[in-house]
Each structure stands twice: as C-alpha cells, then as structure tokens.
Amino acid sequence: MNLILTDLTTGVGKSITASGAGAVKDSRGPAWEVGEVLQGRVMGQRGAGSFILELEGREILARSPFLLSPGEVVSLQVQERQGSRYVVKLLSRAGLTTNDIPGEILARLGLKDTPLHRSLVQKFITHRLPLQLELLGQAKQALALLGREDEEGMEVVLQALKLGVLPRADVLKLLQEFMLGETDPEQAGMTRLVRFIPLLADLIDGLAGERGEETGLLYQELKELVASLVLQPEAGGVKVAEQLRNLLSSQLPAREGVSPFRSLPLNGLIEKLDGLLQALKNGMREKGQGGENSSQLLDTGKGIARQLAGHLLFQGCGGDNEFQSHLYFTLPLVRNNEVTTWGQLLIKKNGGGNNHVDRHNFNMSILVNTENLGSVLLDISVWQREVRVRGRVEKEWVGRLINESWPALQGAFARLGYHLHGYKWQPGIVPRRLLPWEMASGETGSWIGFLDKRV
Questions:
Q1: 347 — alpha (psi -120 to 50), left (phi > 0) or beta?
Q2: Positive or negative torsion for Cα 18, 19, 23, 26
Q3: What angle do CA 444, 450, 453 make, to 5 degrees?
Q4: CATH value of 185-319 in 1.10.8, 1.20.1050, 1.10.10, 1.20.120
Q5: Helices (H), 230-267
C-alpha cells in the first residue's frame, strides 16, 4: 500500500506521480535511500484524501487512499528511487499491519467485514480510487448486474467506475467482452476482425439480385477499410506509417464517451460492421437461406462488434477523466494475406493532471510477437526531446541486430529534432501481453510511469 508524497518545504505542486509514491527534492530536499525505513506522524488532514505528515522534521503532503488520523505514527519504506522521485510503501500504522487495514477501513465505513467487502477495499486501494461509501455501493450494485464477484468481474466493474458509467448493464457487458477477450492477444478484437472478414465471402456470394448487390458493396467497403488498418511490413515505411495512423484512429471513439443519457460510443469501423451484419441477416431471411453455420458466423461478427465497442469504452476519451489514464491499442500485422504477427501498444501518461500527449514529453511501451524474431518489448521514454529506450528480447541475436541498426535510427530521430540515446536491452522471457489493468500487472513489469489517455 503506497502513498503519494510531496515535500511542502520545497514547494507544493512539484511532485511527479510514480508507480507508487513520489516525493520531490531539490538541493534542500530529502535524500532517502532504497530500503530506508522512515518514521512519521500524522499532523492533520487537508481536504479529502490528503494529509500532512511530519517526516524527519519536514512537512510532507500525503495523498492516501485510506483514512489517517491526527497523531497516528506511520512507518514507510523507500522501495525505489527514480531521480527526484521516491516509491514508498506503508509498512505499519502504530503497530497495525497492512493486512489489518482493510478491516479497519470497513469498520470506519460501517460495513460488515466480509470477503467481498475486503476484496473491494483492496481493489479500491490498488486502483487509487477514493474509499467512499457511495462508490463502494455502486461497485457492489455493478457486480450484481454483471452476475459475478470474482477477480475478473471486479476488474471490469472498477474500470467502469473509473469511466463514470455505472450502473449500466449494457456498458458492463461490453467492457467484460473486451477485457476478457484481450487476455489472449490472438483474440484481440482487431485481430479477430481481420481474420473474420474473408469468412463472409461465401455468404455474400449466396445473395443474388438487388439485395446481393447492395450487401456486396457494403462488404467491399468494409474489406477495403479493414485492409487500410492492418500493418503490412512489405508495403514499406511510408505506407506502414499511414496504416498505423488509421489503425490507431480506428480504436478510438468518434464521439464523446457514454452517460446515462448518451448512446454508446461508435466509430466508422463498428458502424460499417454492424451495417453489413444486419444486411446479411435481412438478405438471408428474405431468400430463406442460411443455416446453423451461417447463424454462428453472424453471431461471431456481432461478438467482435461488441468487443470493439468495449474497447472504445475502455479508452475513455470523452471529457476530462482523472481516473482513466491509459490508451491501449492492438496491432495486427499481415504477411502473405494472413495475420501471423500481432502486437500491442500502450501510450502512457507523463506527469499529473494532463489529459493529452505532449509530443516532446511522453512514454509508451510496444510489444511485438513475430515468427522469426520472437517477442520483442520496447519501453520508450521521451522527455524534452531526449529519447531513451529499454527493451527485452527472447533471442540475443535479435538484440545485437537492433544494436547494429541503431545508428541509422538515431540519425532519423535527429532529423526530427530528437536525441535518441543508446538502446539498452536484455535477453529473457518477454511477457505475452501488455494489458493496462490489474489482471496483467504480474506479467508486464513495465518501468515507465502512468499511461496517457488521449492521442
């Protein structure tokens, strides 16, 4: 359990949120070492979720997901130092271990100490959501609508809570289909769509007359649109860059996010897919065609459309949302007209309070799984046009190959006005997926801050 710390003696508002907690220091600031245990006392509260601590004679502003009482003694251990940032862990509170904290929180909130309540409190702390009785009640209501109280169900509900769309059963179902589908990267919505389109050709050919011609045109439009979204390395760098722009745009909502009075987010891709599926259904019904296989194929298409719609919900691009801090994209790659390679891209938030990506200061992670090179993970950090890259490869020769081509890449970055530092890589096990929610936290281990929410 972590706190976000700011040294008030060096100026409030300079803190940079890291993966746990940050304390900014300057020439007068603290110089804590990794592993050091700090003893402090809670001096008082300043607003909801903010408290004043005294640490080593300094006044520290602490953002805490749980309640701290004036006079309490806390023990903090420095977990990691990242320049002027410190990741610290709450070890105890006046003899109270962190395992006891959920029970204490429930007692203060007047809730029964049940496994479900304890799990929710722990999830709220992990996701840095405010521990408010109303929000906990919304989460419980959403779990009932979803019909599941397991780990995966809680992750879906907490993401919906961050998006501010509770309680809505339709939203929960869409998010569930998206999040559970993405746990297997080969079943990601965009990858499934690319593989699905050719399967419709026989159904299109089975429709004759005017209805068949209309449906055929819809099919051709969707086929061409999907082809423009998929990355095709053989097309060359310029064409791939265009495909990448189209691909990322297709995974962002074209309209504002959802609210109780607003329809679900859509974009041109989902609208064309829905239109084609409905035209096929109507055409087969009029001709008395179709069978079990055709119905299953249309059901598969509807499932893909729901998964893609859930992805748009997850992006949470509508409005100023302080909780949703991720942009997540899937990257299907085609070779010889087949999806043999896929990847994932996370664009990450750099600094607090900003909901846009500054072209001079941003972070991202890229995971690509290939047939010949194995899996490759790149973590990229850009700060004031200084670009640093760390990565992981399955095969050492792939790392050496990247190093050999690095000078040419540095020249390309220099022409764009960026300074690309050397490439730091290590061989080993590369995670099979990069997912920006808690279920994947044990796999990714990515080293760059928070994720960003708007491109």
A1: beta
A2: negative
A3: 110
A4: 1.20.120
A5: 237-250
Q: Is pLDDT at 124 greater than 80 in this prediction?
A: yes
Beta 419-427 vs 386-393: how paired, if at all? parallel
Task: Report the C-alpha gap between 286 and 375 in whole angstroms.
Answer: 48
Closest CA to 347 of 331, 364, 325: 364
For 76-125, the DSSP string reads: EEEEEEETTEEEEEEEEETTEEGGGHHHHHHHHHT----HHHHHHHHHHH
DSSP 8-state secondary structure symbol assigned to residue 153:
H
Q: Are 254 and 266 in contact (CB under 8 A)?
A: yes
Domain map (residue ranges) of the chain = 4-94, 99-167, 185-319, 323-455
- Number of C-beta neighbours around residue 146 at 10 A: 21
pLDDT of amino acid 216:
92
pTM of the model: 0.71
Q: Which residue has the tokens 């200084």?
A: 386
Which tokens in the block code for residue 260? 């109780």
151-163 and 169-182 helices, crossing angle to 10°: 120
CATH class of 323-455: alpha beta
Where b means 16+ CB within 10 Å and e means fewer, 388-418 reads: bbbbbbbeeebbeebeeeeeeebeeeeeeeb
Q: How would DSSP label each residue in 401-438?
A: HHHHHHHHHHHHHHHTT-EEEEEEEEESPPPS---SSG
Give the CA count within 13 Å in the CB-facing half-sphere of 391.
26
Q: Which two tokens stand for residue 78?
A: 């420095």
CA torsion 117-123-128-134 (nearest 10°) is: -30
Token representation of residue 202:
């026989």
Handedness of CA 114, 117, 120, 121 (dihedral sign): negative
The listed CATH number (1.10.3720, 2.40.50, 3.40.630, 2.60.120) that belongs to domain 4-94: 2.40.50
Answer yes or no: is pLDDT of 139 > 90: yes
Confidence class of residue 303 from pLDDT cuts 50, 70 and 90?
Answer: very high
Tell how strand 386-393 and strand 85-93 pair up. Answer: unpaired
Burial of 109 (0-12, 13-18, 19+ CB in 10 A): middle
Question: Among residues of the chain, what percentage have pLDDT more than 70?
Answer: 74
- Rounded Cα distance, 377 and 365, in Å: 7
Widest CA span of the chain, in angstroms? 84
Query: Is the CB of residue 126 less than 8 Å from the CB of residue 155?
Result: no
